[in-house]
Design a protein that fits this description.
mainly alpha, 278 residues, disordered N terminus, 49% helix, two-stranded antiparallel ribbon, Caleosin
Length: 278
């Protein structure tokens, strides 16, 4: 533009106003060839990585995937539910079941409170295990181990129970480590943690676990040096697998969900009663 002004000034000094106007007109003309050739589109905005669930340098995050669409399948999946074990197929929990004001973990334990007084004694644990189909030896061994493990943490004070009783109102204090974390520390049900059991480990079937996948989950959930938690988790899940796997050797998602709120125990007891009566 400075060059054109100099030409105009020179032309005016030379006494040629028409020439000056010609130069000025050409300087204002739009040259599409020059303009288009010099145009470059703006760079694309950087990709938002804040929602990524896989890290390129952490292959384990690609191997154990999360469900990125869970919020579209279930309202507020990050919100732990106190009363109901919910998932996309059961957004209201187990249909027709009264939680009786208990947390999901309390509902799970209450099945073994055979007289409904809020306290579980070893013989009640034994009766509950027999009711769901466990043999005599397994029922006896597990009733001792379960009450031995859970009795003291659930007591209201410092004194232990001489009868190894478990208090249902304090059952959340007996939560062990190296688990799926589907129960939170207060006994609520966390839908996102429950869904992760199958999104991470259900590789053969999206809504079921094979025995090998169950073993992989137990190993993946282990906390360092938490040997007691390792044993407790293995005992619980392997017992569940032996009792509730289907004819194809799969542990179905609905079966596992029923474990958490105790509705599975009621179904197993009903099935066993029908077998005895037939």
């Amino acid at each position: 533009m400075t060059l054109y002004l100099q030409l105009v000034s020179t032309s005016l000094h030379a006494g040629s106003p028409r020439l000056a106007l010609l130069h000025l007109r050409r300087s204002c003309e739009f040259n599409p060839r020059v303009s288009m050739s010099s145009y470059s589109p703006p760079p694309p905005p950087p990709r938002d990585q804040s929602m990524d669930t896989e890290a390129p340098n952490a292959p384990i995050t690609r191997e154990r995937r999360l469900n990125p669409d869970l919020q579209e399948q279930l309202p507020k999946p990050y919100l732990a539910r106190a009363l109901e074990a919910v998932d996309p197929s059961h957004p209201q929990g187990t249909k027709g079941r009264d939680p009786r004001g208990m947390s999901v973990l309390q509902q799970h334990a209450a099945f073994f409170d055979r007289n409904g007084d809020g306290v579980i004694y070893p013989w009640e644990t034994f009766q509950g295990l027999r009711a769901i189909g466990c043999g005599l030896t397994v029922s006896f061994a597990f009733s001792i181990l379960i009450n031995l493990f859970l009795s003291y943490p659930t007591q209201p004070g410092w004194l232990p129970s001489p009868l190894l009783s478990i208090r249902i109102d304090n059952i959340h204090k007996g939560k062990h480590g190296s688990d799926s974390e589907t129960y939170d520390t207060e006994g609520r049900f966390d839908p996102s943690k429950f869904d992760a059991v199958f999104s991470k480990y259900g590789r053969t079937h999206p809504n079921a676990l094979t025995k090998d996948e169950l073993s992989s989950m137990l190993q993946g959930n282990r906390n360092t040096y938490d040997f007691l938690g390792w044993l407790a988790a293995a005992g619980e899940w392997l017992l569940l697998y032996s009792l509730a796997k289907d004819k194809d050797g799969l542990l179905q998602r609905e079966t596992v969900r029923g474990l958490f709120d105790g509705s599975l125990f009621e179904r197993l007891e009903d099935d066993n009663n029908k077998k005895k009566s037939s």
